[in-house]
Structures are given as C-alpha cells and as structure tokens.
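Hey,

Quick one before I head out. I ran the complex with OOB overnight. Inputs first:
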Amino acid sequence: MSTNDYTAADLDDIRAKSPDYPEAFKQHYRDQGLWSDQTFGALLKTQAERFAADPALIEGETRLSYRALDARVDRLCAGLQRSGLKKGDRVVVQLGNRASFVVTTFALFRLGLLPVFALPAHRAKEITHFCTASNARALITMADRVSGQPRFDFRTLAREVKAACPALEQVYIDGAPEEFNALESLSCDAPLIEDWPVVGADDLAFFQLSGGTTGLSKLIPRRHQDYLYSVIGSLAPCGFDERTTYLVALPGAHNFPMSSPGFLGVIAAGGCMVMAPEPSPTTCFELIEREGVTHTALVPPLAMLWLDAAPHTQRDLSSLSVLQVGGSKMNSEAAKRVGPILGCTLQQVFGMAEGLVNYTRLDDDEDVILYTQGRPISALDEVRIVDDHGQPVAPGTPGNLQTRGPYTIRGYFDNPDVNAKSFTEDGFYCTGDVVAQTPAGYLIVGGREKDQINRGGEKISPEEVENLILAHPDVFDTAVVAMPDDFLGERPCAFVIPRKGATAPDTPTLVDFLKTRGLATFKLPDQVRTIDAFPHTGVGKISKKALRQALKDTYFSA
Ligand code: OOB
C-alpha cells in the first residue's frame, strides 16, 4: 500500500465516522445560497489580496497585516507539508490567544489537516482523550502560558500525553521546546508543494469538543461549508465589517470567540483582531483603549467583573460598541447595567458547539435584548420545542429544544450509541436545553434537562468527574450536581457516600486526588458533602433533582 492509498483509506474512514447531511439538505442549502465553494484556507488568501496592508492581527507589539498573516500561514504550510503529515490527519491544538494560534489554525485548514481544538484549561486527562479519540498524529501546544496564574508547563503535560498515546508521533511547542520540536522552526521559506490534495468546501475542516454530558467530551466534526456559513451568517447580526476591531478575550479555541462571529468572522469581514492573553478588566481595558476595540465576547461572570471595574477605570472605553455575552444565561439585572456602564450595546448569544447560534439583534427593543437569548442566525434553522414524549408544546410554553439546520451537525464523530440518543430520526439535535419561544421567534432559556454543570460558561460532565471520584478508596458512591452561585451561576458539588468503616474524603483531599488524575481545574468540585444514602427517583435512579433542590434550599436560606 503506498502512502497515498493509506491516506485515502484513512480519510474515507474519518469521513464515514463523521455523520453528514442528507444530499437533499445539502442541495437545498446550496440552492438557497447559504453554502458556497469557499474554504477557510482560500478565504484568507482572498482577503489577503483584498485587504493587503490593512491590519489583521495584533498581539502585544506584533502587528500583522492581512498579507503578513497570509505569508506566515503559507510558511507554516510549507513546513507542515514536509513534516510527514497528510491531508486528513488529526492534530490536537492547545494554544493560548496568540498569533501562533491563528496562524496554526489557518495553516491546518489550508492543508486539510484536521485540528482538534483543546482549551488551555484542559489537562492530561482531557488531552489524552482527544488524542486517543481522534487518533491524532500530532500535538501542537505551548511551553507555558505567558500570563494567567498559576504558571503551567504544557511540556510536562505533552510528555504524559505522548507516553499514553502511541499514535502521537509529533509534538510541536510554541516557545522553548525542550526535547520536542519548536513550532517556530517548522515554518520554512521553501515553496509550497503544488500537488498537495485539494481541500474542498465539503471536506471536514476540524473537530470541536462537546461540553460533555455522558462522561468524556465528544468530538464534533465540522466541514468548511457549514461552519463558514455560520461565520458569514453571523456578520450582519453582530455588526461586523472591515472597521471592526474584535478583542479575543475568551479562549480562541472555543466556538463562541472562534465563529460567533469571532476571529474567523474578523477575517471574513476584513476587520482586525486583538489577542488578549487573559480576560481581566485590567488587561482588556488597556487593549480596548490602545487599539480602539469595537467588539468583544464574554461569558456572564466576566461581564460582571468588567461591569464592576469599569466605573473605576481611567481607560477610555468609548470605542466599544458591542458587548456579546453568552455561554451561560446572563442575569437580567446585570444585563441592564451594560448600556449605562460600558456605553455599548449588549448582544445576548445562546449557542452551542454542535451548531445552532442565536443572537439578539443590535437594533432590537430593549426588552428583547435584556430578557431573551436571541433568535437563530438563519431562516433555515429549524427549532422544535417538545415535551418529554417528543410532542410539540403549546406556543410560549417551555420545553426541550431540538434543532436542525445549515450549520448544526447530524452526529458526533464515531459515536453511534450517543448519536442514537442525541439526534432524532429526522436529524434534529436534542440540545438538552429547556427553552420557551416568543411569538417573534426569540428563545428564552429556562433551564436544562441534560446532566451537565455550566460553571459560568465552562461545561462540566458530572459523569466524567463521578467516574474519577469512584476510584478513591474511601468512596462507595458519588453524585456530582450543580449548586447555585451568584457569580458563576453554578458550581459543582460532589455528594459522597463513604465505604463501610471509612471516612469520606474532605474537599481538599478529594480535589488533590482529582488533580493528580489530570483533571482540568475548572471541573474540580468546589464542595464535597458526605451523605448516607441518595434520594431516588421512582425508577430507582439517583435523583439529582432532589440533590440540587437540597443545595438550593440551603443556599437561599443561608
Ligand atoms: C457555547 O457553546 P458550548 O458548546 O460550550 O455550550 C453549549 C451550551 C448550550 O447548550 C446551553 O446549555 C449553554 O451552553 N448556553 C447558554 C447560553 N449560551 C450557551 N445557556 C443560557 N444562556 C446562554 N446565552 O456556550 C456557545 C457557542 C457559541 C456561541 C455562544 C456560546
């Protein structure tokens, strides 16, 4: 078998494991002009010709014009082409908000190498899972984080991951590489290899990660045509154009700052992105003033921090015209303060890495902006709100949100069992969110039916944490549930039943235990409570609802 045959077989296999839209839907989305032949790699090339010397990316003192960004991408492509990686190979990418992240992303897109986008907060447990589940051949990560406390050495993590993943052949480090390869020295001035396989709009582009409800995160396959549509369709609702300066404050690998419209939207609009190393008001207010930032995106707890800090800042924030807030529900009292304090328009964003994204529109009435989470990007987004038996609820009544449309996936990668539960037979994604729809089509998020904890926008699968807790020698059984929190909305709390004769671990002990298992810090329980027995539902399952209610009762009576 020649290398090319191997590549073709592997590519076919990856495609086969990535559920696709039925042909009739594809044709419809094309006929309606939503999907095009464009790819992300080609888009940057077109924009580099059109916006040549205009600023595309600012990171600290580094300023890249469209032409310079595109040239960097080509230099990295030339190196990647000579690295032995082939079209369709998976590359796990874990980089902070830096120029190298954007250059790497576009280089992989351009060559048809498939990034799996990890967050800087992920640790050995998660990264190992992403490498294994995607059968990745390469990992691109950083030496350590330039800012953010405490300092973390990602090379140590890479070592652990490499030892656990035999298929992982190559590791590239942005910064001092130690025994690995330097990402910087991968770029080269050699010409691009011309007979590289073509990357088409119908090809897979990358994998996003699901927040996770059933244990480990699932891989979300995205193709150029559907993802590009979600980006381009977001530009007008968010007021993005070539005058936009967008601050990448949230981790750029997340769907929200990536594509709603995010930094990919910046490139599609001909605007400029400013990379924030971390999202604190101190760092970001300075960047807003210095670079004349017009747009940014935050999760609600960060928006609240900004609202508290803004009245005391000496920085000039007057360039900011739109603040997008999403990832979890924004409290309407906080929402009311955005206009008066920051002097900009609030845009609520309710989206998901699986697809559907809703925006309040910039010219909507105040009530819509304050009290709803927006309406879908596209007229072809189908929204269905159903009861527990799958029957449509009466208009305006809360129910389970199901959706299908031009940028909502038809299934997770290589996961038929989960797909059978998370997607209906007619291709709707069961979001697990409980929403009500207004007569004008806006969604109001009322809660969640899926077993997930939303820690200020960061999603935690209780099952994943429970499985690790169960490995503790003193634990007989456990249930991880959300406890209410004014700032983050929810925090994880672990209820633990000790083994006979043992004492249940206290919070610091259990947290240390989970940390040594390589779990990301944001998933660690904030509280551990010992309990003798779990409340049960009628069918004998643990009643998480009763546990949540118990936490709520103590919270509100405290
Ligand atoms: C975004 O994406 P994910 O994949 O991290 O999380 C999706 C889930 C939703 O199913 C919902 O449960 C929750 O996050 N969510 C919200 C929300 N936005 C997301 N819940 C209430 N209010 C909101 N505004 O979080 C995401 C992806 C693209 C754009 C924005 C957010």
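The chain has two domains: 3-434, 453-555.

Talk tomorrow,
K.
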